């Protein structure tokens, strides 16, 4: 009998998922966005053509076109994503690699990837965070994502959490001949260190820290208020909070005793 996936101590991540069908969707979405921009901006540029003010407003126009492309991409991606969700709703579980669930997950995955790529090209750091929330990411307030890679489906993030640089949160994986989708939960004040890999089914407890370049195995629970390190995580160190006033007082007492 095969052992459970959670019994495997190796970090489990997915490879680059199949793009064949998704490439057509992304190219079609890009073309629709450009055509929509052409018709939306047509009257403006017709009015400004040969106008002496055209060169004055040119920098603003270029910057506005960038934001317009970003906004239209976000709206169109959301519409296409909702259509695919209606056709095949997201599900948790283990599925064959040739299943319908895997195929439609790939479509939804690359639609969101394209949207995120465009959003992160913008100069404001909160654009990708807003885009993730518009889709299906469940997250509280005052969180930091940095340039991390996260799966927006089946991921819950509490409040005051930090997902550090190059951190990877995978609620899905391809393992042997199975496609696995399991929910990841990061409770309030949880931290995933730089370059960490979080496997499907992981629960990062309140105030827990996953160390830099560490990884979890599937269905692993990280204890609250502990620093977890290892690949995969095997060591949990309690977080000691030291009151500076108490530390100063103890140092004074030691100084008085020595004198």
Notes on the protein architecture:
The protein has 259 residues and is α/β, with parallel strands linked by helices. It has one domain: 3 Solenoid (UDP N-Acetylglucosamine Acyltransferase, domain 1). The chain is 41% helix and 18% strand. It contains 5 helices and 16 strands. The strands form 4 sheets. It has a 5-stranded parallel beta sheet with strand order 2-4-9-12-14, with no helix packed on it. A 5-stranded mixed beta sheet has the order 5-10-13-15-16, with no helix packed on it. Strand 7 and strand 8 form a beta hairpin. Helix 2 runs antiparallel to helix 3 and helix 3 runs antiparallel to helix 4. The longest helix has 34 residues. The protein is flat. InterPro entries: Trimer_LpxA-like_sf. Keywords: Membrane, Transmembrane, Transmembrane helix. One of its GO terms (molecular function) is transferase activity.
């Amino acid at each position: 009998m095969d052992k459970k996936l959670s019994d495997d101590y190796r970090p489990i991540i997915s490879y680059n998922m199949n793009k064949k069908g998704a490439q057509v969707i992304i190219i079609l979405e890009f073309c629709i966005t450009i055509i929509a921009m052409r018709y939306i901006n047509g009257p403006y540029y017709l009015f400004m053509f040969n106008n002496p003010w055209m060169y004055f407003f040119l920098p603003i126009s270029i910057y506005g076109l960038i934001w317009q492309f970003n906004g239209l991409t976000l709206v169109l991606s959301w519409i296409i994503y909702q259509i695919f969700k209606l056709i095949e709703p997201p599900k948790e579980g283990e599925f064959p690699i040739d299943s319908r669930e895997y195929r439609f997950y790939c479509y939804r995955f690359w639609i969101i990837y394209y949207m995120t790529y465009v959003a992160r090209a913008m100069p404001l750091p909160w654009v990708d965070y807003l885009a993730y929330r518009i889709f299906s990411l469940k997250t509280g307030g005052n969180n930091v994502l940095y340039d991390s890679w996260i799966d927006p489906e089946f991921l819950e993030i509490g409040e005051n959490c930090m997902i550090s640089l190059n951190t990877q949160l995978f609620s899905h994986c391809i393992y042997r001949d199975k496609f696995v989708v399991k929910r990841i939960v990061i409770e309030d004040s949880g931290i995933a260190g730089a370059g960490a890999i979080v496997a499907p089914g992981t629960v990062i407890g309140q105030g827990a820290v996953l160390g830099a370049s560490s990884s979890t195995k599937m269905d692993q629970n990280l204890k609250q208020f502990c620093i977890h390190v290892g690949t995969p995580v095997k060591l949990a160190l309690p977080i000691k909070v030291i009151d500076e006033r108490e530390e100063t007082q103890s140092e004074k007492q030691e100084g008085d005793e020595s004198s």
